[in-house]
Amino acid sequence: MTGTLTALLVLLLSLAATYFFCIRPMRQGHCAMGQLASGTDTACHDRAGTEEAARLKAEIAALRTQSAQPDPK
Predict the structure, then answer these.
(1) Domain housing 72
(2) Is residue 3 assigned to a domain?
(3) Averaged over 32-51, what is the pLDDT?
């Protein structure tokens, strides 16, 4: 019984810590990645990441278009 309660307590503490240090800041719009060298922007909002996201979205759109077309046999 004591082992089960200890495991439950550890689980609840880990969930609380995850929420407090990870989920809550992300929901408030703060990135936990830290500052870039310039100190003006966070690492999760850098231009390279935005450009890569746009490139990947375009690639996904192209693949969806390609898969929607029937294969010429």
Answers:
(1) 43-73
(2) yes
(3) 60
